[in-house]
Structure formats: C-alpha cells, structure tokens
Specification:
With about 130 residues, the chain is mainly α. It is built from 7 helices and no strands. Bound molecules: heme C. The site of heme C has 27 residues, from helix 3, helix 4 and helix 5.
Length: about 130
C-alpha cells in the first residue's frame, strides 16, 4: 500500500511515470516472496527473515532469525548481482540454504523485485555481525 502511495507521489512530483511503474511492477512480483518475507516499517521475521535493508548487508545477519549454517557461512554481502543470482536459483547460489523456493526464472521479474527492495533500504532492521 505504502509503495503505491509512494509511486503516486513520484508521479505527482514529476519524477516520471516510468519510475513509478517499475516500483509498482516490483511490488506485484514481490507477491512471490510475501508468503515468507516481510518488508516495511512493521516488518518482522516470519518463515524467512525480513528483507529490510537487504542490499549491502551481510547474508544471514538479521537478529533473532534462525538461519541455516549454509546462509550464515555463505560469505555473501548482498549486492544486486548476488541477489539476482540467488532469486533466480537459490540452491545454486547458496547450496544447502533452507529457503523453500525454487527460484524465479523471469529475469525481468527478478530485476523488478530488486528495484522494489530498494524502497526498504532504510527501513528498520536489527543486525548482528
Ligand atoms: C517458502 C518460503 C520462502 C519464499 C516463497 C521466499 N523465501 Fe527467501 N528465504 C526463506 C527462508 C526460510 C530463508 C532463510 C534461508 C536460510 O537461512 O538458509 C530465506 C532467505 C532469503 C534471503 C537471504 C536473507 C538474508 O538475511 O541473508 C533473501 C535475499 C531472500 N530469501 C529473498 C527472497 C525473495 C526475493 C523471494 C521472492 C522472489 C523469496 N525470498 C521467497 C523463505 C522463503
């Protein structure tokens, strides 16, 4: 909801409809993740960890979430490129990780989701290192 409002504001501010459309498209595509992941100001860990502040943080670092050893020891600090690979094929990118998701084989959708996740770069998340 918040994102739709943001998208509307961006259009209103004249930043451009193209940007707003990408954000909205990403939100729809994120439905594939929502069963397990939350984002936004009130996001909590669920079946999967919250994806707030994801880009630039160490994999397996959200406080209070029970990650697999594979994720904790992956040595990844999430960049857009890592995420594109992980979302496309989670088992190939982090062998042995416990995300029960086969991967999203639509590269445009993957990239839209990554754009969408940038909306939550500054949303609250507690990390342990
Ligand atoms: C069926 C539940 C489920 C679905 C659907 C799912 N995930 Fe996950 N995800 C998990 C679980 C569980 C983990 C923890 C993996 C581990 O610890 O091995 C995880 C971990 C992650 C991580 C690593 C986070 C971190 O803190 O290092 C990212 C990134 C991620 N998922 C992105 C996505 C995206 C994007 C989608 C949608 C395209 C998605 N996931 C769909 C369950 C899911």
């Amino acid at each position: 909801m918040k994102v739709i409002v943001l998208a509307t504001l961006l259009v209103a501010a004249g930043i451009g409809q193209a940007t707003a459309q990408i954000v909205a498209r990403g939100e729809v595509k994120f439905n594939a993740c929502k069963a397990c992941h939350q984002v936004g100001d009130n996001a909590r860990n669920a079946i999967g960890p919250t994806l707030n502040g994801l880009i630039g943080r160490k994999a397996g670092s959200v406080e209070g979430y029970g990650y697999s050893e594979a994720m904790k020891n992956s040595g990844i600090t999430w960049t857009e490129a890592d995420l594109a690979q992980y979302i496309y094929d989670p088992k190939a990118k982090v062998p042995g990780n416990k995300m029960a998701f086969g991967g999203l084989k639509d590269k445009q959708a993957v990239s839209d989701i990554i754009d969408y996740l940038h909306n939550f770069d500054k949303a609250p998340v507690k990390l342990h290192q």
